[in-house]
Design a protein that fits this description.
Elements: E1 2-10, H1 12-17, H2 19-32, E2 36-52, E3 55-67, H3 72-81, E4 85-92, H4 95-105
Antiparallel strand pairs: 1-3, 1-4, 2-3
């Protein structure tokens, strides 16, 4: 099994309408590829630098998983067929970086977690939207 980091650019409107369904869709793609998800979370929701397939906004969803290398074709093909995933990028990660990133986004999933295991794994999805109209640091 190889350690991977996957960044999935998701349709923001579909994520806003159904958080759990959208996340389940991404995790299902990984499951079909034989991946074992270690940690995942939304990263950033906002305007894209340029239009992609008619989308001006997107949500970046970060997933850390292990998988045999043969599953990569399944992920690529499934993402291309998906109407939720706009783009995806998957990279291999060395074990030390993988462990550090997993512990950063989900301390309870880290291999050396102390075991406090907070049961509150809810995410404040409203805090992810950073493209308010009154954004004062815009360069345009």
């Amino acid at each position: 099994m190889v350690n991977y980091e996957g960044m999935f650019l998701l349709d923001s409107s579909k994520f806003a309408a159904d958080h759990e369904g959208t996340i389940a869709h991404v995790l299902e793609i990984l499951s079909k590829a034989g991946a074992e998800v270690v940690a995942h979370r939304p990263w950033q929701d906002g305007k894209l630098a340029y239009e992609i397939d008619g989308h001006m906004k997107g949500l970046h969803y970060l997933v850390y998983f292990t998988m045999p290398g043969s599953g990569m074709d399944v992920i690529t093909r499934s993402c291309h067929l998906s109407d939720i995933v706009i783009r995806q990028m998957v990279i291999k990660q060395p074990q030390t970086l993988f462990d550090a990133m997993v512990s950063a986004i989900d301390p309870s999933a880290a291999p050396d977690a102390v075991g406090e295991g907070s049961s509150d794994d809810s995410v404040d999805y409203d805090a992810l939207n950073d493209d308010d109209d009154d954004d004062s640091d815009s360069d345009s």
